[in-house]
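Appendix B. Raw example, untouched.
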Amino acid sequence: MLRARASTDLRSAVCPHRDRDRSDAATPGDEGSAALEFILVGLVLLVPLVYLIVALGSIQGQSLGVETGARQLARTIAESPDAVTADARGARVLDAIVAEYGLDPAAVDVSIDCDRSAPECPAPGALLPVTVRTSVPLPLVPAVLGLDQLARVPVEAASVQRVSRFWGTAP
């Protein structure tokens, strides 16, 4: 094949080792391995990263549910006129929060602390602390040998509200 320029022939004649260096640099076993290495390293780094994002998203969603549950339960109980109404409203609020945020109803624990010096719980004008606890299962953990019970992250939230001064009085 005839070359378009004579200068290309001169370069190879002046520097005969240039073509030889190019052919020696790539060994026959390395051809095409860059794409394979990129895919392998990409998967090794990408799969744990995606799992971490999914796990943190699940934990964050559950923690938002627990925090909302504690705040709304404290508000509902503190604004109720009596204990019977507070129990009924609190149960409805808790059911709504469990359904909305996808909490495990069996794993949700609610504790309401009252002032020990007051004769009734809650007392008008007293502070009412409400704590909601649950545990979040990590995604894709199998239920083999109890691993699903071990791979849980505890989540807890607390809220304090002042009880209405009209607590216990008829509306």
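End of appendix B.
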